[in-house]
């Protein structure tokens, strides 16, 4: 009896469960979709990422504390060298403590120095050196492969991508001349520079600028160099015409040709106390081997004197010195 009753109860429960599953149906919605108004939702813009100022301030403060605690002096620097030859000695910096002037050891310094050049545009590279127990740090550059009249700059190492740190580094830096002269002093060359009158007419009879540049180049050690004339080709500004005109005249006896113009940069300024003359030079150096451009530069010279002719003479002399110097460190 007990077994039958239990079976009856279980069977009844099972029947009820099956009946419920079979008769349950999804309730259909009576609402019309067309009647529902859905408002578009504009997403909220992402919150801006803010770098705490304390990080930048802390980096600058650490750097400022460093440079305030030391002093840099340029102990020695080598003289100019020749392209393809090593400098005779390193660039040497002395680092001392600001408090008592004693040597500062272990200070890391950044060295910025010339490595390449396009005409007068110099490209720089950076490396680091560290002060020793005497507070001395030495930089020996790689053997230079370009002529250049540049600068070595040495300063305490830091993140110069930060403008504040970069400004502080500049104030704490020391500099020295980094000069590499041409290796063509003995190779021979010609000069063809055309002067212009104040009204813009080329002077065909004689070039004071050519003569002046020749004199200044000889003072610097250039040999087998002289003047040559072909005004029409030079005035054209076409380097191919200049090269084709010079080649039959020069042949293979020289390595380079310097040509260009020297014009009035502006009308002569006249005043009660004298005159001021400004000249503009445009100079190109060609290889006589193949006509390629070895170097190009532009220069400006200004001089004053009580007399107009004397002001012009002074300006031409300054222009000649500038051109010779540019060729010496640029050719």
Number of discrete helical segments: 7
Q: From the coordinates shown, what is the CATH architecture of the largest domain? A: 3-Layer(aba) Sandwich
Number of domains: 2
What name does the CATH topology of the largest domain carry? Answer: Rossmann fold
Average residue pLDDT? 87
| Poorly predicted regions | 1-36
Query: So what's the overall shape?
Result: elongated
Can you offer a commentary on this structure?
The protein is α+β, with helices and mostly antiparallel strands. The protein folds into 2 domains: 55-181, Sandwich (Immunoglobulin-like), CATH 2.60.40; 189-328, 3-Layer(aba) Sandwich (Rossmann fold). The protein has 7 helices and 13 strands. The protein has helices spanning 2-23, 53-68, 163-172, 208-219, 231-236, 239-250, 308-328, and strands at residues 70-76, 81-82, 91-97, 108-118, 121-130, 136-139, 148-156, 174-181, 189-195, 225-227, 256-271, 274-287, 293-305. A 5-stranded mixed β-sheet has the order 2-8-7-4-5, covered by helices on one side. Helix 2 runs parallel beside helix 3. The longest helix is centred in the N-terminal third of the chain and has 22 residues, at 2-23. Residues 1-36 have low confidence and may be disordered.
Describe the secondary-structure layout.
Layout: H1 2-23, H2 53-68, E1 70-76, E2 81-82, E3 91-97, E4 108-118, E5 121-130, E6 136-139, E7 148-156, H3 163-172, E8 174-181, E9 189-195, H4 208-219, E10 225-227, H5 231-236, H6 239-250, E11 256-271, E12 274-287, E13 293-305, H7 308-328
Parallel strand pairs: 2-8, 9-10, 9-11
Antiparallel strand pairs: 1-3, 3-6, 4-5, 4-7, 7-8, 11-12, 12-13
